[in-house]
Write a structure and sequence with these properties.
Blueprint lengths: L9 H50 L4 H14 L9 E6 L13 E12 L10 E13 L4 E5 L5 E3 L4 E11 L2 E3 L4 E9 L10 E4 L2 E3 L11 H8 L16 E2 L2 E3 L2 E2 L4 E4 L2 E5 L2 E3 L4 E4 L3 E5 L4 E2 L1 E4 L1 E4 L10 E5 L7 E5 L2 E3 L1 E16 L3 E17 L12 E4 L2
Parallel strand pairs: 4-6, 4-26, 5-7, 6-8, 6-26, 8-9, 8-10, 11-14, 12-15, 13-16, 14-17, 15-18, 16-19, 17-21, 18-22, 20-23, 21-24, 22-25, 23-25, 25-26
Antiparallel strand pairs: 1-2, 2-3, 3-27
């Protein structure tokens, strides 16, 4: 028996339950979207921090303005433009707080969105939501690259060579001949990879296809300085006194055939041609050799060759620099070769043999690696690689 006045009491309960269910459903839909949006925003913050830090490789640390510009550009490329639709993108170099606050080579990027859309939860008065994400990236000196052959389509010859470079990455913008070679490397990349190893024997990495690599010079402070501010060639009046000591300076021509030569610490410009045949060269005190356009200085057929880079000053880390556009062949051929630092001849062929475990970075158009006795490339010192990389740190 239904009592009078009880009719319709179920309807308000149903309405309340439906409202609650709609609220929970709305929250589920909107929370799912907010989490998706946050993941996208975090990816953009990561990209912004990495982009800002990557710029520091080329512009130097610190550089607030370059880092901010690069960070905002990368945020925009990932869908978050500063000042658009409630989005604020900020970047700082060094970060203003946190564990990287004193790191001039670190960049913090923060993205705030004040107008994240809501859907079903609008019925509860939530018209928009706010989300904030941040990331920190830093430049680190632990890049493994040590052989860069920049010539597109050029063939680098490892024929019969014994290359020991387990901590080294080999990048070839052309192809390679490994016939009879024994190669141990951390990575081997060829733009014109044929799909075969060309008769080589490999310990560790085997050749694989890659996209073309860029000239690393702009990201190496000493190399970039030689490009933008080369040593003076005026006046170029240096001459060898015949006493076995070579002093820094500019030499129009140099003939030290068959002599034992010690190169003092400093920067040398070898203009014109030079004759080192049969000589023993010791540049272990720290030298930078600069070869201008048109010059052709080669350490060919020397009895012994020891070269190490300067460790201070604007050209530190660079042992041999031949200007871009100078295609004269560079030879580092000696019965005993002990060379470290950066050897840079981006437009030239390099003939290279004999390395004894020192850290060396070779950049050329293409090369011939000769010497079955061993091309031993040492690993870069801890956190002191000439090749920089960027890592996401926070």
């Amino acid at each position: 028996m239904r009592h009078k006045g009880e009719s319709g009491q179920v309807l308000p309960l149903i309405a309340i339950c439906l409202a609650a269910l709609m609220g929970f459903g709305g929250m589920a839909v909107d929370v799912g979207y907010w989490r998706y949006h946050q993941r996208e925003q975090q990816s953009a913050a990561d990209a912004a921090a990495l982009g800002g830090a990557q710029q520091l490789i080329f512009s130097g640390c610190p550089n607030q303005s370059a880092a901010i510009t690069a960070a905002k550009n990368d945020a925009t490329n990932n869908g978050f433009t500063d000042g658009s639709n409630g989005v604020t993108v900020t970047a700082s170099n060094p970060p203003s707080s946190g564990p990287f606050a004193s790191n001039n080579c670190a960049v913090n990027a923060t993205i705030n969105s004040s107008k994240v859309a809501t859907f079903l939860t609008k019925v509860f008065g939530w018209k928009t939501m706010a989300e904030s994400t941040q990331a920190t990236a830093a430049v680190v000196a632990d890049g493994p690259g040590c052989i860069y052959m920049l010539g597109i389509g050029q063939n680098t010859n490892f024929n019969g060579a014994n290359v020991q470079a387990s901590k080294c990455s080999i990048f070839l913008n052309g192809s390679a001949n490994f016939n009879g070679a024994n190669v141990s490397a951390g990575a081997i990349g060829e733009v014109s990879y044929s799909g075969s190893n060309n008769g080589g024997t490999f310990t560790g990495a085997t050749p694989a296809p890659i996209a073309p690599v860029a000239d690393p010079c702009p990201e190496i402070a000493g190399c970039a300085a030689l490009t933008s501010s080369p040593p003076s060639m005026s006046p170029c009046v240096g001459s060898y006194a015949g006493n076995g000591i070579l002093t820094p300076g500019c030499y129009n021509s140099l003939n030290v055939h068959g002599q034992n030569i010690t190169m003092q610490t400093g920067t040398y410009v070898f203009a014109g041609g030079s004759n080192f045949s049969g000589a023993s060269i010791n540049g272990s005190a720290g030298v930078t050799i600069y070869i201008p356009a048109g010059a052709s200085t080669n350490f060919n057929k020397v009895s012994a060759l020891t070269l190490a880079p300067q460790t201070t000053g604007p050209y530190s880390g660079v042992t041999f620099y031949q200007v871009s556009g100078n295609s004269n062949t560079v030879n580092f051929n000696a019965s005993s070769t002990n060379v470290s630092g950066m050897l840079y001849a981006p437009s030239a062929q390099i003939n290279y043999n004999g390395a004894y475990g020192l850290y060396t970075v070779i950049v050329a158009n293409y090369a011939n690696f000769n010497g079955s006795t061993g091309e031993d490339f040492g690993a870069p010192p801890t956190n002191a690689s000439l090749i920089k990389t960027v890592v996401l740190s926070q």
